[in-house]
Amino acid sequence: MKYCNASCKKKHRSKHNKDCEEHLRHATKLHEEEIKRAAELYDIELFKCPPEREEDCPICFLLLPLLIMGSRYQSCCGKTICSGCIYAMDTICPFCRTPTPRSDDEVIKRTQKRADIDDAKAINCLGNHYYNGLLGLPQDRTKALELWKRSAELGHIQTLYNIGIYYRNGGGVDVDMKKAMYYYELAAMKGYASARYTLGALEQEAGNMDRALRHFMIAVESGHSGSLTNIQILYSQGQATKDDYLKALQTYQKYLVEVKSSQRDQAAAFDDRFKYL
């Protein structure tokens, strides 16, 4: 209703105040129900299981180990190859037969060349190097964030997790947990196990044990050993059932069978960094 002035509006308030209050309560209730339903729908998406398999080694065709040192990105051809196949070939790339780079400068040049043709993994690697100041590059976390966002736009899932870490740690910016959670959840929904584990750990810290357990159970399917350890802790504290722990243990053992090979065992025996257990 329109009024000619404030005095007229005040004078008429008693005639419609009750109706307005009722309308406001009704609108507020509807809004709260919409928010609750939106949260429920989001949780359905958040806790969907990721794809059963992510990526195989292009040489031995076995599932790549989850542990970062269990595989290596090759800046010569852009392939990610398991530690066993790299160990077997020693001084050359198992895929393209290019000699292993002999200096940090050569690694950076090769990686930059791959990044220039929009190789998302190469762009992510450059971002990692700038973030930590590695291989002769200056530490520039603003540059790292730019590279990670570009890599994410090209579809590299791990980069989403890196961006989450950036905002959680305040790398060059103020800490922003809302943005960090957004990127962690985005990476988890796309199947990145470390992001899923991180969400579980954060829920565990907050006392939300049911949600933590759900995250850990999904992460174990991708071979995340830390999630199995946390499920064991929840079980010992009475926050998870025996069946939960048994299922997680069986799932993790199945993963170990999938990633195991004699060459990978030899690589692990040669260098502890290659161990994936």
What level of helicity do the residues show? 55-70%
Strand count: 2
Rounded Rg: 25 Å
- Which homologous superfamily in CATH is the superfamily of the largest domain? Tetratricopeptide repeat domain
Architecture per CATH nomenclature, i.e. the level-2 architecture of the largest domain: Alpha Horseshoe
Percentage of residues in DSSP E strands: under 5%
By CATH reckoning, the class of the largest domain would read Mainly Alpha
CATH level-3 fold name of the largest domain: Serine Threonine Protein Phosphatase 5, Tetratricopeptide repeat
What string, H for helix and E for strand, traces the elements in order? HEEHHHHHHHHHHH
The count of domains is 3
Strand order of the largest sheet: 1-2
User: How many helix segments?
Assistant: 12
Whole-number mean pLDDT = 88
| Shape assignment | extended
End-to-end CA span: 71 Å
Largest sheet: 2 strands, antiparallel
Uncertain runs with pLDDT below 50, 5 residues or more?
none
What structural class is derived from the secondary structure elements?
mainly alpha
List keywords for this structure.
277 residues, mainly alpha, Herpes Virus-1, Serine Threonine Protein Phosphatase 5, Tetratricopeptide repeat, 3 domains, two-stranded antiparallel sheet, 2 strands, extended
